[in-house]
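re: ur question from earlier - yeah i can do the single chain one, its not a big deal. heres the input i used so u can compare w yours
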Amino acid sequence: MAEKTRIKKTPIENKNVLCEAYDYEKKVSFSRGMRVELDNCVMLFISGTASVTEKGEYAHRGDIKAQTRRTFFNITNLLESEGADWHDVVRTTCYLADFRHYDEFNEARNAFYVEQELDPLPASTCIEARICWPELLVEIEAIAIVPRDRVA
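and the output i got, formated as tokens:
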């Protein structure tokens, strides 16, 4: 049987900011992100990312704004590990543990996007959902597209 042709893909990681989920005390089977190489571009798929430290511990219990800022910090560092930044992000999906936190979350997100000088803003969906740890109030996933000639 002939071997199947596959799109080149490699995991995205930045262990200075986030440990791998499979390194947790209770192993979790996913990559922090996936780099997919296409003809003229590279797509970066960042997994759901939360306010988690490089030791795999949650940070900022009960503070949605601080958790949102840490989540953006984590995603920023994952993007940077692939030569990308928030100007390359085309879509986010945001998960809130409780929609009563939406206004505070959105205030932190708006401030971050202003700081990044994003225009246009990424397409986005915000969903209320149970997040894997009860201490976590927000989780965000992102998709970025980067010209192939800009990334290694």
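Residues 9-150 form a domain with the 60s Ribosomal Protein L30; Chain: A; fold (CATH 3.30.1330.40). not sure if urs matches, ping me
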